[in-house]
Design brief:
The complex is a heterodimer of chains A (268) and B (286). Chain A contains eleven helices and two strands; from the N terminus they run αααααββαααααα. Chain A has 268 residues and is mainly alpha-helical. Chain A has two domains: 160 residues, no CATH class; 81 residues, no CATH class. A two-stranded antiparallel ribbon of chain A has the order 1-2. In chain A, strand 1 and strand 2 form a beta hairpin. Chain B is of the alpha/beta class and 286 residues long. Chain B contains twelve helices and ten strands. In chain B, helix 3 crosses helix 4 and helix 4 crosses helix 6. Chain B starts with a strand and ends in a 7-residue tail after the last helix. Classes of the chains: A mainly alpha (268), B alpha/beta (286).
Chain lengths: 268, 286
Amino acid sequence: MIKDITLGQYFPGNSAIHRLDPRTKLVGMIAYIAIVFLVTELPLYVLPALFVLMTTLIARVPLSYLIKSLKPIALLLVFMFVINLFMVTTGDPLFDWKFIHVTQGGVWQAAFITLRLILLLLGTSLMTLTTTPIALTDGMEKLLTPLAKLGFPAHELSMMMTIALRFIPTLIEEADKIMKAQMARGADFESGNLVKRAKAMVPVLVPLFVSAFRRADELAMAMESRCYHGGEGRTRMRILKLQWADGLAGLALALMSAAIIIGQRLLF
Amino acid sequence: MPIVVEKLNYTYMQGSALTDAALKDIGLTVRDGEFLGLIGHTGSGKSTLVQHLNGLLQPTSGRVTVDGYDMADKKQRRLGRRLVGMVFQYPEYQLFEETVAKDVAFGVRNMGVPEAEAMARADEALALVGLEPGRFRDKSPFELSGGEKRRAALAGIIAMKPKYLVLDEPMAGLDPLGRRAILATIDSLRATLGCAVVMISHAMDDLADRAERVAVLNEGSLLMVDSAENVFAQSELLVSVGLDVPQVSRLCMELRARGADIPSGIYDRAMMEKALLRLFGKGAEA
């Protein structure tokens, strides 16, 4: 049943990409997004595409795994492509039939937008595929630390995220158990109209909430009894340290954006 | 008519990288009115197996029928499921209604029984599990103590008057008093309702005292299913697959290992008493 859901899409490995500092990956991803938006000419998408391909190969993540991350937005991609194809009517007409007009500009625009979306998604998936959720929240906390001086709860935020991520599988398992217990008492989740089905969820949601609160209470107690008192003065087991590989990654991104800017000036 | 399990195989996460064969080729019959104990090491597939008995899990291959109802068929499953009352581990976590009586009546109402009769059956079930209806009927289930919650949850299954009662470690996490109360409830249920009981337990002594037959699971396969005497007689085999044995059996094994002349196959106190008396040459007087 719902137990079969895999959450988070971390692909275990020990490649250079996996070992990169999570801060590098976070900042790198933002830079990558900016770079993709920087491109205004279709052929120049070759560069970010190459970048994604190279990173995937270095990370030794199967390409099929990366492609799978496109599945949830496959429908959106098709929709965007079709809309752009028919709505943009600049350039030479290619195809004319009654109310359907396809122009060169339309094809170009459709390919451009779709490719942009694909590249954005592939790049960000690549990060979540090669970084554990814990490392990501760690990196986020470290990046947000300067803001803590202004009163921004950086540590609290990342601790909340860590705990939330940690408890997703637990709660799924719990929901599965409770659903089965209620099904054994004749509860029916599969038939009836929407209202009836929503009502049928009450016997699952009430015990699930009760147990979530109980768990939260127990966890708070366990943390306090181990002297947890927030982020101040707290040392860490894994200390994030920038290495030459992080510099290399930054360099690659910088080179790519330079190539795109120069390419756009000179070639188009 | 019995519950018949034939050539049952079950694999978790079929088709993914994490496939895990949980049950292999299980054949088992739960007879009318019997007390069947189900034992096995943690992860041997006991809980997975009992979830097939009322169709909560569907076999990867094989067949389960409850009194002739094929549990793979949606319509027949609904009818078959009513015959099998399933009490999960820590059933107190399934309570959700405003009052104990409403919660106990939940299953009965789902069977289509009219409200008034459902409430009457809830009272009846509460009395059976030792929660006085007058005192507990209108309490919130969340006000009860741990042991009381467990009994209220048990009442919720009993009110449905199942022909087979399946219990997955019903005493887990209770204190000795709570354990005894649950066991006494199960015994009195069998006496009054005559339902068959399938009970998973790690407490071998409790099973040795009650079970007519015992099934032993090991790593997803049925190691043996036989009368309690024959199963507990093989203490050495049970120990070798990482299981506990009744305390009397353990004592026998220890005594035999030290050279005492005690026959194998002794697992309850009465038999032990006789064997010891015989050993000391007092068999005639006793």
